[in-house]
Amino acid sequence: MKILIVDDEPDIRLIVRYVLSTSPDIEVLEAEDGRRAVLLAEEHRPDVILLDRYMPVLDGPATLTELRNNPATASIPILFLTATRNPRELDQLRKMGAGILLKPFDPQNLKQDILNALAAG
To answer: What is the CATH number of domain 2-120?
Structure first.
């Protein structure tokens, strides 16, 4: 499984990469902003994208829109990895067609949380 983590916080990317890289069946790609994420997604076609909500350059919702408008990336499942607890905002993200994983996340359960979110569709 190829996972693209998109977050402007280097520490978050480091933790996600470290946790997921312990699984031999997972390859982790990283982007520090939405622009880079769109390019990497088009080039590498990950199986899932973990996308931060708030980022400079291109925020999460704008990145999701660009990915959905590109035939090469339109069908890639996207999970927002966000610290927001605002129910209205979370509903808005779900209506955009993305799943939600909340920060802080439990590193020991991250892989299973991703699989569960993907299975829930």
So the answer is: 3.40.50.2300
